Amino acid sequence: MNSLREFFHTDWGAMTVTDWFGTIFTVIIFLLMVLAYFQVFRPKHRDRLESHKHIPFDEDNEDNGDSDGGK
Predict the structure, then answer these.
(1) pLDDT tens across 18-67, in order?
(2) Which of 59, 39, 35, 34 is CA-nearest to residue 49?
């Protein structure tokens, strides 16, 4: 158990500003991802998400500049 504690030991005093930024940024991104997954997999939002599932496959000729209808 002692070697495991030594393996995960962190010298908090030796951390630079960049180290702190990376640590805090990683924790914030992790929390945002947990929130996003919670929102996506929540049964209450299923109908709203199901209605948007074909958006990447829908072609809108006005937005992509095709004047000949995509021929």
Answers:
(1) 999 999 999 999 999 999 998 888 888 888 888 888 888 877 655 555 55
(2) 39
